[in-house]
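Take a look at the protein record below and flag anything odd:
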Amino acid sequence: MGKGYGQYCPIARAAEIVCERWTPLVLRELMSGSCHFNEISYGVPLMSRALLIKRLKELETAGIITRKEKTSGQGSIYLLTPAGEALRPLIEQMGTWATHWTCERISPDQLDDQLLMWGMRRGINLNAVPPTKIVLQFDLRGLTKGKRKERSYWMVIEQERVDVCLKDPGFEVDVIIDADLSALTHVLMGYNSLEQALNEGSIAFEGPRDYVQQLPTWLYLKGERRYLSGLAPTVLGKMA
């Protein structure tokens, strides 16, 4: 931990643990169901692995998480302790507050295609998705990080499991989502309407009519105001 505040105040003591840079986002990932190091790292792509190791050790020392060795293979599993789980309402309220009270326009430097897909895969409305395997292809354009301006992702939904792939998994695609990254992010956040984006052509769907009609419900695109932390019901998945 960094230098403390030197106060007995409970808020100061809590801030010494929770308010270190990146710590709230690490907690967000743990609360979203990520328990392996690489899973947590996917959710904080701009955080160095060395710093992530340091923050995890600090949280373990503070009694917020516990680390267990995997029953098979190498590596560890990170789990919230009761003290860590008790922080869930605080982290959720931070997201809720920001959604309602900060600027509704997301700047280009805040856009992140990998983080968007990682968050989306945890927020699928599994109750609405057909029981068969569903494969979605996301053709994203207008990327702002790195040299690439376009990239495709594949989302495979099967048996209440959601996987996001950086490479074509080889399955038949059911629906193609062609979207500008900024437009899709604003719609997912509830800042802009899907109807407006479809009319403008910044988002387009291609596939069987019944699936295209159901897609907004699967992905929560009907104006649900939310933040893409994935603190919806936990869904296990991977970025392949």
